[in-house]
Description:
This protein has helices at about 1-55, 85-100, 115-125, 150-170, 175-180, 190-195, 220-235, 250-255, 290, and strands at about 140-145, 195-205, 205-210, 215, 240, 265-275.
Amino acid sequence: MLKDILPFWTTYGQYVVIGILPYLVYCFFLKKFTNIAANRKNSNTENAQEEDENHENVLDEDTDEPVLPKDLKSIPFKYVRPSEGEMVQRSIEFYNIASARRTLRFFSSDPVPPEVIHNIIRTAGMILETRTSPSGAHTEPWTFVVVSNTCTKERIREIVELEEEINYKKRMSKKWVTDLKPLKTNWVKEYLTTAPYLIFVFKQTYGVLPDGKKKHHYYHELSVSIACGILITAIQYAGLVTLTSTPLNCGPALRTLLGRPSSEKLTLLLPVGYPANDATVPALRRKPLDDILIEVN
C-alpha cells in the first residue's frame, strides 16, 4: 500500500500542501477575527457584570460593627385602619390613576414647578426622617440626578443619539430592531432636549462610610428597581408624564458628564414634563387580570 501512495505524494504532494495551506491560514484568521468581534460586542455587558459580581470582593470585611447603630430604637408604627369600603374605593382611585400611565415620547417644553420634582424624588427615595422605598439592610443604594440646564441636556442628547445610532445599526439584533418598528422608535431622541427635566437614577454598587471604608449594598439591583417603580408612579400621580428610557452603552459617558463616581451605574433615564398638545401613543392593549393573576386559596 505504501508503495502505491509514494508515487502519488512524490508527484502531487507539493500541490496538495499548496492547496491546504491557504485554507488553514484562512481558518486561523477567521476564528481570530470572529473572536475579536465577539469580544468587542460583549465587552460592555461583560464589564458591567464583572463590576457587579466582583465589587463585594473589595469591600472591607474586617469589622464586627454594623452600619446601623447597635442601639437602634424602635418607634410606634402610626396607622389608621380604613374601613373595607374605604379600602375598595382607594384601590379603585389609585388603579384609575396608575392605569392611565403611558410611555410618552412627545413632550411639551412648558416648565414644571421644581417643588413637584423634589416631592417626586422624596417619594421614591426618602421623605424627611423616614423612607418610602425599601432597601436591603436599609442601605438606600440609589442616587437621583435631576437635570434642567439646557446646555447639559443638549450634551446628554448628543451622547445618547451617538450610541443609539450604533445600537440600531450594529449592536441590536435584526429581530430586536424589527420588533421595535411598530412603535416607530429610532435613535433620534428629541424629548431629551424638549422635556423640562431629565431624572437619572443611579444604583450604588457600594457605599462609602464616613471613615472612608466601603459599605456593602445588599440587593442594590432589586432595591433600585423598586424605587424606580415608585418614582414612575409618583410622576403619574402628580399629573406629569415620562418615558422609561434605558440608553444602551451610554452609562459611562453620562456618569462622567454628571460627575458621578465609578461605584454608581446608570439604571434609568426619565424625561419628565407635560405631554405635547399633539402627543400620540401606540394603541396597545394590556393583559387582562386573568392572564397575570394566580390565586392559591
